[in-house]
């Protein structure tokens, strides 16, 4: 296989930045990377991280996932519009009680997380089908498999992503185009920082006292602990995404965090859906101490796995 052109969205920070740089610095020189971001004023961190690969194996282009013209302009600017691998990574988060979020903010989130993917696939899939080759890699989430308290709208957007890809994968296969959903658990990036900063200053007056208490004193407190205990680095997710990209037979789904797998496995273990809901309920509301103890164990396991 020769050099493959990989277009990555959302490269101003986090997983997108780490992956673009990891691919560009590949020792076997297997990739030419088109690292895109919606706001080129934010390119400095990527330029710094790219170092000598900048303008050699990595070029930076503007692309806003919410704007069809911007996507088309970016793709049209590439020789023969060639994109061998699309990494749809751009995404935004949202947490909090539903009553405190407005519908237009939810629509905006869907516009990026779901319709952003739809726009990119619409633009690139016909070319890939014609060439009878290509790989669409989508940064989904474990919340695309299983919902989570106070992540209602974000999880819904990732469920939409998963349903879209699962449906399309069969048609894509007919044209030798591969699809992979990468499903990270918690990853320590700007994403986490942004949603928690917003959550800290969120106006909770639209919800009842008990819900506000659960959000502040249970959800936010435990989320921090979860990120600190089992959160991966963007580089870890980037490394695994690279392995998916170079694989001869890439999986349709790839979860990046082995520690999270027992939680997602519950979903498939019980077709009634009660098992994961009961388990999350008990974990959050009834087994405070057990939850803390499990997190400590997970923290140790995470460190050991990192060292391995
Ligand atoms: N962090 C986690 O815990 C986690 C877990 C599972 C899945 N994920 C997924 O991983 C992906 C990357 O997230 P991250 O953790 O790396 O967060 P991040 O550091 O906040 O990066 C998100 C990237 O998406 C970009 N973006 C947002 N809206 C965009 C738009 N309309 N067009 C183009 N780019 C846009 C952001 O650009 P700006 O700088 O301009 O905002 C940024 O470059 C997301 O899809 C997220 O849902 C994250």
From TrEMBL:
<dbReference type="InterPro" id="IPR011348">
    <property type="entry name" value="17beta_DH"/>
</dbReference>
<keyword id="KW-0560">Oxidoreductase</keyword>
<dbReference type="GO" id="GO:0006703">
    <property type="term" value="P:estrogen biosynthetic process"/>
</dbReference>
<dbReference type="GO" id="GO:0005829">
    <property type="term" value="C:cytosol"/>
</dbReference>
<dbReference type="GO" id="GO:0004303">
    <property type="term" value="F:estradiol 17-beta-dehydrogenase [NAD(P)+] activity"/>
</dbReference>
<feature type="binding site">
    <location>
        <position position="141"/>
    </location>
    <ligand>
        <name>substrate</name>
    </ligand>
</feature>
<dbReference type="InterPro" id="IPR036291">
    <property type="entry name" value="NAD(P)-bd_dom_sf"/>
</dbReference>
<feature type="binding site">
    <location>
        <begin position="10"/>
        <end position="38"/>
    </location>
    <ligand>
        <name>NADP(+)</name>
    </ligand>
</feature>
<dbReference type="Pfam" id="PF00106">
    <property type="entry name" value="adh_short"/>
</dbReference>
<feature type="active site" description="Proton acceptor">
    <location>
        <position position="154"/>
    </location>
</feature>
<protein>
    <submittedName>
        <fullName>Retinol dehydrogenase 8-like</fullName>
    </submittedName>
</protein>
<keyword id="KW-0443">Lipid metabolism</keyword>
<feature type="binding site">
    <location>
        <position position="158"/>
    </location>
    <ligand>
        <name>NADP(+)</name>
    </ligand>
</feature>
<dbReference type="InterPro" id="IPR002347">
    <property type="entry name" value="SDR_fam"/>
</dbReference>
<feature type="binding site">
    <location>
        <position position="64"/>
    </location>
    <ligand>
        <name>NADP(+)</name>
    </ligand>
</feature>
<dbReference type="InterPro" id="IPR020904">
    <property type="entry name" value="Sc_DH/Rdtase_CS"/>
</dbReference>
<comment type="similarity">
    <text>Belongs to the short-chain dehydrogenases/reductases (SDR) family.</text>
</comment>
